[in-house]
Records
---
Amino acid sequence: MRETPGPSGSLGMSVSSLFFYNLVKTLRLLDIFQDMGWLQNFLLLSALSLISSSSAAGEGCKEYGLQFERSFSVVGEAAMLNCTLVAPEVFDFWNVSYNIHWYSKETLELGQATERTLVRGTTLWFLNALPQDTGKYLCVVRTPTQCFSQTTSLIVNQTNSHCDRPDTHTQYLTNSVFGEMVCPLKDMKTELGDSYSFKWYKDCQPIETDDKFMYRDDNQSLTVKRVEPKDGGFYTCTVTFDLGGIPTSMSATIKCEVKEEYVLQPRIVVPTNESVKAELGSKFNKECRVFVPCVGEHWVSVLWLASGADDYIPKDSTQRVFHQTQPDQRQVDGEKGVWLNHLLTFSEVKQEDFYVNYSCDVISSHNFVGAQFTLLPADPNLMLPVGLLLGCLALNFTAAVVFYYLFKIHIVLCFRGVFPFLYTEADADGKLYDAYVAYPRLFGDRANKEVEGFALHTMPQVLEGKCGYKLFIPGRDNLPGEAVVDLVEERIRASRRLLLLYSASAFSSSDVSAVSEAWQHWYERETAMHHALLEGSLRVVLLELEELHPAQLAVLPPSLRQLRKKQGVVRVRKNHTARRTTRRPGGWSLASGEEERQEGVQGLATPPLCPSSRFWKELRYHMPVRGKRTPCSERETLGNV
């Protein structure tokens, strides 16, 4: 049985050998008792049985289980299994003698019984691996007082190539720079002594030294110059050596991956050799923002320096002026790189800090770059007066908008009266009438008389008599015997506006079908809707003498409801506060001073006959601009509110 010397240099003795030595001494003593031969035979058989049981692999040892790392080899090459039990966390191997034994799965001890295996130190060598060598092997370490065991796996693969290895080791090279690969078998040279040599292959082709590859450390390392993506692939390093007088070899395959990593010249974005103002006694921060174009890690340093100082500003937050580092931000969109942010912080700005140049220095492997700024005292604060001025302007503008919204009609009519020369003559457009007055005519209905009275009497008195507009009113201006269809079409085209007049009474008839039929056969309305909604050549003004309820709105034709929703209506409003108000049926106020008692108009919302009243002003606002014609007199009134 092979014995392994301990770290002290003395030769350890196996337990079975020690027991055999004691057995021989015992048998010699038993020669004295020759007449007791049966006792000698009994003790001899017992001793042999004890020897067999004591030498069983790993019996009674502290078990460390199966080693995590497996060993790989190929047929025809050497294979090695390393016992990791000789370690300080297992026992004090520096001061305690020990020996190592290796056993196969058949519990046969290896290292002496066969010429293909060799135990050297903590390593079990297979000089010429065969497929049947694949399996688990037990390493047993014994000391005078303890015993430890651990199982290691060996996998022997069959390969058809001298450089193809099933197990690979991944190593990385950096693009565009010099890279180096190290043979995974490099650490074996301590086991091999001086008789070894390394050989490298790429994709099974031998690698020779040229302008692309270079060997280092006795060919244990391979240097690749100016790495390119095509340099990736599989590399194999083979070490040839002599072990126990038998020449053999081992190989390892490296899967080389080229990383797209690089670092270019940094760029300082902020500061930009500028002047920065700060208030005396305030807290101030200035950022040094640097972009480093790179892929992967970078080795860039950013420092702050004040002009005239002997050393860089420290990163000590207890100082009044200190350097503060912010987390890096990697940019993956567009140009790839890293943003570096370093703050120069003044916890309190003092007078001595002004008119000093502070430089941000960036140090990299490429070059040294820097940028600076000068700290100046801040100008007087004008924010308050400027804010008050802007606030006043905004308030005035808002008030002007609100005022115009509330008094828009009055302002527009006043502007028309004061500056009539700014408007062109309306008669130049070829139209004959300023407005065509249309209203539903419901025969036999009292509401028809009310609407007709307003259309035939009240409107002409104000619009024609006081304001000078020219109206066309059916029933007043058409000649007997004229064709109605042709007349309506012709007069509407000759008018600048169409005043569509109706009241709530027109929809309050008990005969709903009669009302609906009258609206449907109202040709003026159909023609007006066609010109207004489809052609856009005519502007329609809706006049409501009374407020319509939802039920009455439902009777309106769809086109009229759409136009009403789109542009609104001009409606006579109630007047509850006018002095000397006279109540009439319907609750509307008439002109103060005179109670107009027109036949057939009782119960209708009748506005005052004054052009300056709210209703007539709103109506005049929608009427065509008179231009240079006689302005509407608002002083002459037929009644006061």
---
Amino acid sequence: MTKTFKAALASWLVTVAPAYTQDAPRLVLQLTVDALRGDLPTRYVGNLGEGGLKYLLENGLHYVDAHHCHANTETVVGHATLATGATPAVHGMVGNIWFDRTLDRVVYNVEDQTAPLLGEGAGVNDEIEIDPTQAAAGTDGRSPRALLVTTFSDELSASTAGAAKVFGVSIKDRGAITMAGQSGKAFWFSKSANRFVTSSYYYDAYPDWVLAWNDATPSASFEGASWELMHPKETYLFAERDDQPWETDVAGFGNTFPHRYSSSQNAFDPLENPYFTTFLTLSPAGDDLTAQFAKRLIEAEALGQDAVTDYLAISFSSVDYVNHVFGPSSLEAEDTIYRLDQTLSNLFSFIDERIGLEHVLIVLSADHGTTDAPGYLDSVGIQTGLVAPDSWDPTEQIARLKERFGITGQLLAGYNHPYLNIAPEVLEQSDIDLPALEAAIAEELLSFPDVAFAIPSTAIEANLLPDTEIMRLIRNNYHPARSGNIYVVFKPGWFIADFDGLSVTSTHGSPWRGDTHVPILFAGRDIAQQQIARRVCTTAIASTLSALVGTARPNGASGEVLQEVLE
């Protein structure tokens, strides 16, 4: 045994603290900022306060070249990867939706008809949904049962014989559910009910403190109010871009400041303002409500008050919603970062008073990055565009393929990002040459000017892909029971902006750098400030938390342990 190895082993043994010792953190606080592209925490650093993002940047480890190492950079895919340390090929969350061949329909990632939501009127809001993937759900029931492997929080529960308290909170159901894992409790915001909800998977009835919090209607503080700029307008990088023609006006929320949350003083009357709660989620108000609920949870559940490490995951969704509607390079997006910074500062102060930040391990990352609006990129001289599959007019190509393969009925079941699916009745034909059919469809797709790659699933299964980075990301996204027949990659900066009639300004979901690049920040527990430029994958977070706290790794985890965090 070499001296170097002995020293490393000794350092590891001293550093790693089992989750039940006095040296273990009392609370692991895992923060996920939806769509926080890797450059955004420092893009506006001059206007940040002292206690939020800047606290993490000045007191923690910052991995500046961290990436999701899978191709489909959507919300549930990234959250599940952060939680499990596994790729989608292993944890199974290959997209926000996928085509379930056993049910012969598209399913939503965390839907579960055996776990109905608690309470009446707590279902998916049917008024307007900036994230239309929820419309695919066949039920309002929700659970983590579709997650195929354990999370860090699951292993923390197992290592403490269930003594660790584990919770996930978010505006989005999938943001809370995936992080809480199979053993924790999850709460998310229902726009239709204007309250935080959960399902029967977690509780038979709501805890009293949740009922009391919801009954107090914290969103009432926004009634009759407006989203105003936090700082003087002239101090903003995007001060002169308050009204960009490519921004989306959702139901009268407007393209310029101020953005009114309600058109009258009676915000809760659906006849007066049916979009009040939607407007809250399209602004920093959504993050504020999430943090308020998380603070009450910390108090009511007494997190971090004993020697057993507890776990709280908070997923903040406002950056994502604002990016979709206004674009990440907009005055609205910039102000959302400043208000998120303030929200984090208040949260950290709250935790410091009740637990002590010296007893808390904080890790912040994002489920994905985001692509700038084509209009904005064009304004600075970068050429991109929007993908419109309707303009492809595939009738001639489809007819040619059907004749070639002897198919008389429907050939395609539809496109569910990022997969194109072949109709089930075609797949059931015993004489169909599936590899040849998939290859032929992929070849036709490559003739369209917007498509960069079209990868047949049979080619992935046969390990026929070239060993390039993009192909590795696509392979990491493939699960045989859930992936479609053809993985479609649009050209860099190009995306579909229309979803069932709803137009968005920008989106994400590609394997290109803007969507894979996210921050990783660790702070607390004597971690020293350092900036790390080494390329790392987000799968490393769960493995590192397990090593630091002293639990088993999640059973599907493949990420490295970040040694700088342990040291």
---
Amino acid sequence: MAYRYQIGFLGYGQLTQLAQEVLSELSWPDTEIQVMNCTADTLQACVEQGRRNGCEVFVGGAANAAEFVRQGQGHLVEIPVGDLDYLTALHSALERGRRPAIVLYYRVHLPDMAAYERLLGDPATLLTYEDTQELEEKIAQTDCDIIIGASHAVETAEKLGKAGILLYPGKPSIAQALEDARRLARQLHQEQKNQTILRSIVNNSTFGVMVCNAMGEVILFNRAAQQLTGFSGRDVRGRHIDQIFPTLKTSRFLAGTQEQQDGYHLIQDTMFRCVQTKIQLREESLGVLTTFYMDTRSRKRNLPVSLPESKAQATFADWMACCAGLDGCTRQALQYAHVPLSLTILGEEGSGREWLAQCIHNAAFGENSPYVRINFAAFSSQDAGRLLLGMEQDGRTVESMLEFAQQGTVVLEHLDQAQPQALSCLMDVMRHQRIKHLGGQMAIPLRVRFITLATPEEAQHFSPALRELCGILTLTLPPLREHPADIPALFMRYLRQYTERAEQVPRLSSRMEQLLSFYHWPGNLEELSAVCQRYLYALSMEPSSTVNTRCRLLTNAIGEQALFQSLLLQYPALSPGAAENPGQFQAGVAAAKEILGYGNAALAEKLGLSRTTLWRKLSSGSSS
């Protein structure tokens, strides 16, 4: 079946009529022209309809063309209007003894009215409009009695009792624009066929193929490359190649004089041979072709160190939306983000240290730059040199994990458990800001930001030298219990994270917010996350969700005994054998009733008191 080119003609009024006359004279069996009557106001809807009907190329006058380009709609051929057309229309109006005004859509290229006045010897007015209402108002208000413009302007003028002259030069220009559009449609279809053939060849290739353009943006990533590397096409296409595969150093290769480079690189826990070849057309650089071949002999399994993350997710916008109570800490972190010195973030486990590290990284380098976490508790002394320094052996290069972070951030964790060999390698790199591969001769400059995460207890085990290398700057992150006002917002953040649809996120009542802020959260954010997941699971099992039901489920998710222990921590006078403090005792009872929902009987049982004793203690507190 022969292919038919689909072209959309965007006209209005007299222009549409002229187009219909031109089409009746054309004989193009391979082309279908769809004529659509529209103005700049209704252009988008018309174009969308045309696309649904198969149109890839459109034809239009100046106003529709200007709006089409502004909206970035695709391919359009504009019906040309030049100085001669303006002068012809003005001359015709002046011959009729009228006062002419040229009326144009405000986005089109405006003519040189001063030059026309010099050539014709008579003045003319130029009016511009943005929408139909403004067009009507300007034509009604002007003292000019003949309107020169596109079909929309002429039709509006005639409706208001004024004469009009259509600016378009006539059928030959319309026919030429349609011919140009048909030629463009042919070219686009041929390109589509070529691309389809190329994709078929590339996607059925047994080795991985990736192509980036001259700016380093990935434009092709075949199925084999996706299967080999573990990256999806959606993850890679359109992004800069150095963000996805920093060890390939493609930008450096593009800028250099080599035509091809061949080397071994660790990607997603697997060693590959990667061949990169420049793509050139005469003297113009078009990009780089990269082919991936798996090196099965050198495949790395169970690497005892975390691999580079594609990007750090968190930003300060997210952080500040949930952690308003950490204003001082946040201001300090924002200042430190742009200082290229090593930073230690101190805080309890789960206090949000890694979250804050991601915010600092993104503020300093951007979300697409390398972000590498290394857990020093997870690898042995035998692995230290290879993983931290890299190695060269038998003509092959195994790059270090630190090299993955060039122009980015390395996050160091559990340094107190690091083997001596690992500490020695790390400290040497941090002192000299360079790496020398084991077995190699050349020193490789390292440009990374080191951020160390540690608890205060872990930091006590650092040697003085290590402490100074890792913490030229130090930031202390308070535990969750020290900014309780932020806990409801943080809990809502987890609710949104664990709920598939935004409209399904359950709300928090004021009592639930009190409950969350009241608990002391010894497990910090990890405990908050776990409680949120338990709460959502329990909520999904409930046939109905009332305010009281949700509060009960949240209490159960935290744990009634855990909440009671938090009560005793905040009000020690409630504990058995505690010194008498009637005021604090009474305040603790009030909190137990308001927040935990205890009555006198339940509270007396929890405190190990008789109801009479509880009543007596409360009475003595009131009388005092």
---
Amino acid sequence: MSRHNRAIRLVDRDAHQPTRCITFIGAGPAAAGVVERIAANQAEIDDRPLIIHLVDPYPPGAGRIWRDQQSGLLKLNSMAGDVTMFTDDSSIIDGPIDPGPDLATWAELVRTRRITDVEIDIDRDPELAAELDGLRPESFPTRRLHERYMTWCLERSADRLQPGSKVMWHRAGVVSVSDTESGAQVVELDSGDELTTDLVIYSFGHLGSHVSGEAKFFTDFAQAKEARYYAPAFTADLDYSDIAPGDEVLVRGLGLAAIDLVVMLTLGRGGEFVRDRGELRYVPSGREPKLLLSSRRGVPYRSKIAAPLRGSHYEPRFFTPEIAQQLADSVAELHFYRDLWPHIERELHYGYYLELFTGSPRRVSLPWPEFLEGLETLDLHGEAYRALVERAVPDAADHLDVDALDRPLAGERFESAEELQARVREHMRNDLLRRTDHRYSENTALFVALFRVYLAVAELATVRNWQPESYLNDFQRRWYKFFSYIASGPPGERIEQLIALSAAGVIEFAGADVHVRADGETGEFVATSPSVPGERRSTTLIDAWLPDPSIRNTDSAVLRDLIDSGAGREQVVGSTPSGYVDVRLSDGRLIRAGGGVHPRRYAVGPGTSTPQGGAFARPHTNALSFRIWDRIARAILGELVEIRGAGDHSAAHTGASDTELEQIFDGAAYFQPDTESTR
């Protein structure tokens, strides 16, 4: 962003129509997305100047997760061509469509100097410059390069705000927000400064949490026994320097955070991967610890899909948004696995087998219409359907078993740790082959079907008849974890690296359903699994996953202030608190403790009761994020029209002196729109 050393004097064009002001608490992707939608909708709803404050200790646009100041070894788990912050012709929204480049196209435009306001110095940052030069749609970009894209997207949105509008970044946190008698909002920064603003949007993204429950017990145990315990946190933020070469470390979790951990403790410690007769081999540096990896499934998340589709065009048939809503409306209490899952599972079978039959006809022995008739009518778990699949698909490896897909080690027992390692490596090789080789495009179709189901299910997040336990445990936890395991795993290269690390003995898999306990006599953590006999002991345990977005345990002062003040409330399903901030789906307004919405505050992103669409979107998918951001942006602009109409000048900028602005915005970085920009 264009950063200036002095404050910008804010001058209103019309003293009778003071410039209105909104403040985002958190300036990551959700804030950037709403700003983009504000810029797109501003001319239609309210074309007068607007001041936008972005308050975040991390870089605006990218935020904490995608910031530049982290290891260049850490990557997105999405291909560059699958990442965009811009609406397209698939977007069904009320506001204008304003297309922009996806990450891969942006990189090409930067390389060819058709975008000229992004500078990556080849002398100062040769690795990032080399990555930009080689980035293609199928590449998995680093988070550092993604930060440059996200920053540019936010700058582009600022450029598209109406003339006279300005955007300001405050490198700070927020302590509290309070209401004035006039309705204006006073935002207290942790620097001691205050901002008076018309509207506040809580967009703080993924937050940390205070340790509690089992994590608190393990923390206290480790301190008392001089062991080491790393509670759930952001992998890139933790210091693992106390872990010595050769230390045996128990790791719980095999998702993306665990992959980051493995990368940091292997490649990050000087190891390297080499090709040996086509096979990847790991060459240790000697500084690595020994990582014993475990999880409920006992295997890593499924490799990211890379095989192109080859068969007939797919459109959902058994589980669409309309069907999902009909199912929810048809029962007094909505149970995820009773009412929704049978239809979801049939939809997954439909997407998978449609592609197999039409994309790889030599691997089947029945016509598609004949198979489809059975798929439509038979019990998927009955003998008749199993017989149909066996008759139609000769190779058992081509059969879809959703339960086995989810729990590949379920029921398996191994005589030794060595047998278990061989089995998991075999699983990873097969997974990598079938999700990246063009011959097995039915697995890509399964991903597409699951993604469409995900969008349809997300629309049910706020229906009022959820059975509470099913909502919290089945929908918010098990379903989202299943989706992430199948659809949001690591790049294929990471799976190949795990295979090489396992063969080199640097990592080891502990089996499925691992249980970890603390041994008070020895001061060790003890891991056991039904997959393999015996136990493993270590004085170091790492829980490799992000903290839960729970209000009760949040480390965010401003979120606690929001709930404690009654300006917002925790969502309650039935009589059970969910841990999420309660917002109105139609416009993102916060719901107050006493009921009703707060007239001046909104919330968006992780940790809210709004359906979660992700930090960015896949192009041409009618992305849920864009629909949510557009609704909130239009509500914000509409509220500003109401405030202007009421003649409320309480939060207006009216040409304060440079001295006053320097005091208010001390330490902030500023950027303002260039209305003549052609970006």
